[in-house]
Amino acid sequence: MVRRANEVRIGQDISLRAGATRRQFLTWSALVGALAFTPELAGTTATAGAQSVVTPDYPFRLGVASGDPLPDSVVLWTRLATDPFAPLGGMTPGVVPVRWQIAADENFAQMTREGIELATEFDGWSIHVDVRGLEPAREYFYRFLVGPHASPVGRTKTAPALGQPLSRLDFAWASCQKWEDGYFGAYQDLAASNLDVVFFLGDYIYEYAIKDEGARKGEPRTESAARETMVLGDYRDRYALYKADENLAAAHASAPFVSAFDDHEVDNNWASQISQDDDDPKQFLLRRADAFKAWWENTPVRANLKPVGPDMTVYRRFSFGDLVDFSVLDTRQYRSDQAHGDGEHAQDAETADPSRTITGAAQEQWILDGFASPSRWNFLAHQTVISDLARGLGSDRKVGMDPWSGYEASRHRILDGARDRGTKNVASIVGDIHRTIVSELRRDYQDQASPIQGVEIATTSIASGKDGADVDTAGAAIAEASPHVKYGNARRGYLRSTLTNTEWRSEVRVLDAVSTPGKAVRTAATVTVPEGRPEIQLG
C-alpha cells in the first residue's frame, strides 16, 4: 500500500509535501522560517543578479519546462540535478528551497508572480508550480533560482478564454525519442517555431538496457543505463539521461507541453495490469507505480496528477477559445489485453468483441461527452493509430493488435458517437509507429462504403528507428493494402500545424539522418484539411 503524502500550504506560494514523521515536518518548518533570512531568496534585488553560470554545483542541468496551459494558469517545472549521470543526479538527500518567477518580459522587469517551492528527495527534487491568476492568451517568461544560480529562461503561453474567438493556433506534436537511436535534432527546429502549445504523445523514454553502440556510442550515461528500468531510481536516471539533451531542453523551454505516456515509459506493449512478459501482476503493478511516479516527477503536469501507487488519472481536455478542443487520452491503463497475444493478425470475432476496450468505459464516455463541445474543431490527442494500417491483401491481410485495429469495437463506439452527435471536424493526432502516416478516419476499413468521418495524422519518431527513409519496405506494404492512407514517410521528425477557422494545415518536418548531429530539418510534405470536409489535400 502506498501512502499519499500530506500537503501543507504555508502562505500563498510555498507548497510543502510532508513525509511520515514529525521530525521531518519540524525540520522543513524550520527551513521555511529561515527563508526570510536568506538574502538570495528573500528579495528580488538579490535574485536579479543571479547568473546561469555552469559551475560544479549548478542545479539546473535538466532544464525547465511549462505545461498544461489554461486561460489563467500554466504549470512551471524543473528538477534539480548537479550531475545527470551520477546517482541521485548528484544531489545530497534533503530539501532545497527554489524560488520561481514568472514575468511579462524576458528581463523580468514586469514581474507577474513569484514564490518559493521546496524540492525534496521524495519527489526526485522536482517541483511543479501551478501558477494561477494569469491573463488568457498571454505570453510569459519564467525562471527558477537556487542560491546564486539562475535557470535558463523559459517561454510559455496561456490558453485563450473558453469561447473567446480565436482565429489561429500554432501547435506541434512529437513522440518516440529513443536516446541511443540518434540525436534529437528535430527539437532544435521545433524550439525555433514560436508555438502556442506542443503535444508529446508517448515514449518519452525507453525502458530497455542501452548498449554502448550506435549513434551515441561513447557518450556519458548513467550506470543504470546498462540494464532495463525496473525500479524508481532507474526510471529517474533514464529521464535524467534524456533531459540532459540540449535540444530537448530547448524545446521544453520554448512553449508549454501537454504530455501523455504510452508503453515505453513503463514496459513495451503493456496493457492494464499485464506486462509484455506476463510477469506476476502484483510485481508488475509495483513496477508501474515506480514508472508512473518517475513520469510525474519529470513532466510539467499539475500536482493533482501525481499517482497513487500504480494508478494515475491523466486523460484530460484542453480548450483553446472557440476554435478547438484537444482530448488527451490514456490508451494503456484501462485497455483489454491485446488480441491474439499481440503482433499482427487478421481481424476476426476477437478483435471485434464488443466487450474489449482500449480506453475503458469511463474514459470512453468522457470522450463521447467531449463531442458535445461547441468548438469548431475536435481533436483526439493520443498514443497510436485509430486507422487500420493493413499489410497484405485478401486472406493475407493483417493489422496490428496493439493499436485500435485490435480494438474495433472501441473505434466503432467513438466514431458512431461523433456521428450521432453531429460532430464535424473530428481529427486524431498520434505517435507510436515511427513513421508519418496521413489517413482517413473510417468506422470500418474493409468496407469501402464506410464513410470518411475525419482525418488522422501520425507523427514519426524524434529518433526511434534510427535514420529511416522516405519510403521503406513497411511503408510500401501499408500503401498497397491500405487505400485510406494518403501519405507516408519513414524519416525521423515531427509535425507542425496551424489551425484556423477555415483549415488545418500541417507540415511534415523531417531530417535525412539522426545518426549525425546538426542535420537540417526540411518539410517533406504539407497536408491541408478544409474545415467542414474531411478531405486530405497534399502539397
Protein model, in words:
This protein has 539 residues and is of the alpha+beta class. Helix content is 18%, strand content 28%. It has ten helices and 26 strands. The strands form six sheets. It has a seven-stranded mixed β-sheet with strand order 13-12-11-23-24-25-26. A seven-stranded mixed β-sheet has the order 14-15-17-19-21-20-22. Helix 4 (186-191) links the parallel strand 11 (168-174) and strand 12. The radius of gyration is 23 Å and the shape is globular.
Features:
single chain, 539 residues, alpha+beta, seven-stranded mixed β-sheet, 10 helices, 26 strands, globular, disordered N terminus, Phospholipid_Metab_Enz, Alkaline phosphatase D family protein
Short description:
This protein has 539 residues and is of the alpha+beta class. Helix content is 18%, strand content 28%. The protein is globular and about 65 Å long.
Helix/sheet category:
alpha+beta
Low-confidence stretches: 1-48
What is the rounded distance between the termini? Answer: 55 Å
- Count the DSSP helices: 10
Radius of gyration: 23 Å
Spatially, the strands of the biggest sheet line up as 13-12-11-23-24-25-26
Q: Overall 3D geometry?
A: globular
Residues in helices, as a percent range: 10-25%
Organism: Rhodococcus navarretei
Protein name: Alkaline phosphatase D family protein
Pfam families: PhoD (PF09423), PhoD_N (PF16655)
InterPro entries: Metallo-depent_PP-like (IPR029052), PhoD-like_MPP (IPR018946), PhoD-like_sf (IPR038607), PhoD_N (IPR032093), Phospholipid_Metab_Enz (IPR052900), TAT_signal (IPR006311)
